[in-house]
Design a protein that fits this description.
This protein has 495 residues and is of the alpha/beta class. It is built from 15 helices and 11 strands. Helix 6 packs across helix 11 (322-329). It starts with 16 loop residues before the first helix and ends with a helix.
């Protein structure tokens, strides 16, 4: 069935809605089958050259049958996705998605709403989620919020608001080059790299962000932070911003937000919290006390698409003082004139709180996820991933060939196979695990040593997946270790 018939008017609607409906049901069934039977698939598999070559085909001019394009999708795309729906995916902190959110995304696409602004129900859905998040994190009614692609964008928005508060909102017109203050900011050396990129993008430069050393628990060293602030003040700089982390990228450490909030208050700094995946740990009674102080943040960034299991993408930023947030982004224009009645009512609009004028309906899949599953079930899912991390920690402790490289604080486990050439052997182990399709961990470095990093974020993961990771690691490690001990094989490996 072709959706575009020759000789028809300019509409892209199908001539035969019944045929479209039937094909749509097949497409939906295929994706439900994909998720239902995900364990029967490899976590990941490399894309063959002939498949990759198909993506270099020329620009499509003539129409194609919808069924044929769907068949291409099933043949060339589905088998070679990155695999984070699979319970064996542990490489990066990616949520597994959920069926209700997937269906909601279909509804959102059908509605095709632009959430840049105006007075319509989809904007009210986003506002309702903001109300829920205010309640969840203890933010005041003055707080604003906005869906964004992810915490990287949320961090940038927070930095821009804080920058404008520090330099004055006229800086939006005259530019940071005209600023008389030399601003400095601070975050943990273990913080996510998106914070440094935010300082690059906002014109202050990556060097303005000072990286504070961490302690033995990989938390920001707050005594070192105080010393760095004092040193910068003596050097003529103006400290203005500090970012705490809830769930650092390497091991999932949580900074001492309570003390950090006190320091920020004393020093007159904007307190930002990067809670990309860890902020939703507030849903777990055992984790929530460790997030004390998050309610004092001037801004908070986190993702629903990680521990919240909402399909990508669904990042969120909150700013304690919504008026400051609006002043940092609002840009009046004649074509955006606001009214008190009609479709142009409802000011302020979401586009007044960020750089995007056109915005998708990410709020709907989040709204569905929160309502269909409820906070209790989502909290249990989060707690379950942390329990699996502790289970993996115990298994590592029981096996002489394996070594834990960092304390397990949430859902991330960093370990390695013991070997005379541990870095190279463990890098090979991770590659072989990924290519085997059994499990997909990633690598990082802990105190200079290369680690196998298992980030257990998927709600589908269970103990059998952890056991499969351990057994495959041992099997690969033993084989590689024997190669390293053979001088001829060793020389071949180095070539």
């Amino acid at each position: 069935m072709s959706l575009r018939e020759p000789g028809r008017d300019n509409s892209l609607d199908p001539q035969d809605w019944a045929s479209l409906r039937a094909q749509g049901h097949r497409m939906l069934d295929d994706m439900l089958d994909y998720v239902e039977h995900i364990r029967e698939r490899p976590v990941w598999q490399p894309m063959p050259g002939e498949v990759r070559e198909r993506f270099h085909a020329g620009l499509p001019v003539a129409p194609s049958e919808l069924s044929a394009v769907h068949a291409e999708f099933m043949r060339d795309i589905v088998p070679y996705s990155n695999g984070n729906v699979h319970p064996g995916f542990m490489g990066w902190v990616h949520g597994g998605g959920n069926a209700a959110g997937m269906l909601a995304d279909m509804l959102a696409a059908g509605l095709n709403a632009n959430l840049g602004g105006r007075d319509h129900a989809p904007v009210e859905v986003e506002k309702q989620i903001l109300e829920w998040m205010r309640e969840l994190f203890g933010f005041p009614l003055t707080a604003s919020g906005l869906f964004v692609t992810g915490t990287s964008m949320a961090n940038l928005i927070a930095v821009l608001v804080a920058r404008d508060v520090a330099l004055g909102f006229d800086i939006r017109r005259i530019g940071v080059g005209a600023a008389k203050k030399r601003l400095t900011a601070y975050t943990s050396a273990a913080a996510h790299g998106s914070l440094r990129k935010a300082f690059d993008c906002c014109g202050l430069g990556g060097d303005a962000l000072r990286l504070v050393p961490v302690d033995h628990r990989h938390q920001m060293n707050l005594a070192a932070l105080r010393r760095m602030i004092e040193s910068d003040r003596r050097g003529g700089y103006t400290p203005f911003f500090v970012a705490g982390s809830v769930g650092t990228v390497d091991i999932g450490a949580i900074d001492d937000l309570d003390t950090l909030a006190a320091i920020a208050h004393e020093e007159g700094l904007w307190l930002h919290v990067d809670g990309a995946y860890g902020a939703l740990g507030v849903l777990v009674p055992e984790i929530a006390p460790r997030l004390a102080g998050i309610e004092a943040a001037d801004s908070l960034a986190f993702d629903f698409h990680k521990w919240g299991q909402v399909p990508y993408d669904a990042g969120f930023v909150m700013v304690r003082n919504g008026e400051l947030h609006r002043k940092a982004f609002a840009a009046p224009a004649a074509y955006l004139e606001r009214e008190t009645r009609g479709l142009a009512a409802g000011s302020p609009w979401p586009c007044d709180l960020g750089p995007d004028m056109s915005r998708g309906f990410s709020a709907l899949k989040t709204w569905f996820t929160l309502k269909v599953y409820g906070l209790h079930a989502l909290g249990q899912s989060i707690a379950g991933t942390c329990e699996l991390a502790r289970y993996l920690e115990r298994r590592i402790a029981e096996i002489e060939e394996l070594e834990l490289l960092a304390p397990v604080q949430l859902n991330i486990v960093c370990f390695r196979y013991r070997s005379a050439d541990a870095d190279r052997v463990n890098a090979r182990i991770v590659t072989e695990l990924q290519e085997s399709g059994v499990a997909a961990p990633s690598t990082t470095r802990i105190n200079g040593a290369l680690a196998i990093r298992a980030a257990i974020t998927n709600h589908r993961t269970n103990r059998s997946d952890i056991d499969a990771l351990v057994e495959a690691t041992l099997s690969s490690g033993r084989a590689l270790a024997s190669e390293v001990e053979d001088p001829e094989l060793e020389a071949a490996l180095r070539e």
